[in-house]
Amino acid sequence: MKCLICKKALTYRLTIKDLLWPDKISFPVICPQCQQGFAKIGAGRCPGCGRPKEAAMLCAECQAWQEKYGWHLKHRALYRYNDAMKAFMQQYKFNGDYMMRHVFHDEFVQAIQAAKADRVVPIPVTPTTMKTRGFNQVGGLLTGVKITECLQTRQKSKQAQSKKTRQERLATKQPFCLVDDCQLVDQTVLLVDDVYTTGRTLYHAAALIHKAGAREVISISLAR
Ligand SMILES: [Zn+2]
Ligand SMILES: [Zn+2]
């Protein structure tokens, strides 16, 4: 096995536990040096957007969302969007290296299962992105999880968010619609995205899901 990121050979030493429960072994897919580049977000975070923060109070941005909508997201992100994470996303999304989905898959799925939501709803990509990239990067992280694809993009293609300024991102119009018959009444819904940037995308999605009668909408992303 080679590290999925730097391609150096990986070594793994079996522990006694591995010998006792060989079916539970989870072999690493990246090396310890590459692992070190990623920064986990710990317990100190904003309860709204999940940004690392000492006091567990809503940050100014989340207070602004609260004012706009009358509710705020309860978002959790596993990692900071630092240089290592940017390089990872570049390789995974923009270079379309689908193998990269394995790097965080198990950890991400565990966090999703821990949230115990009735429905897991991935943020969709446009048909054009699907055609050029060949996959939905959010779906790739969710392999093996039962998902409800109740969101659709209204436009065939979109201007890449990554090329927009913060102001332009915040001014983005509702990009989604709900598919018919998604039955969200009284459900706890977990929205899933790859990166939380301004929150604009998730708030658009959450607003539709609230409107459809969901009891609670929470969200998670790999990075923030
Ligand atoms: Zn490596
Ligand atoms: Zn916040």
From TrEMBL:
CDD domains reported in the protein's UniProt record: PRTases_typeI
Q: Which SUPFAM superfamilies match?
A: PRTase-like
Which Gene3D superfamilies did the record assign? 3.40.50.2020
- Per the database record, which ranges form the Phosphoribosyltransferase domain? 175-223
What's this protein's family per the entry? Belongs to the ComF/GntX family.
Q: What is this protein called?
A: ComF family protein
Organism of origin is: Limosilactobacillus panis DSM 6035
Q: What is the lineage of its organism?
A: Bacteria, Bacillati, Bacillota, Bacilli, Lactobacillales
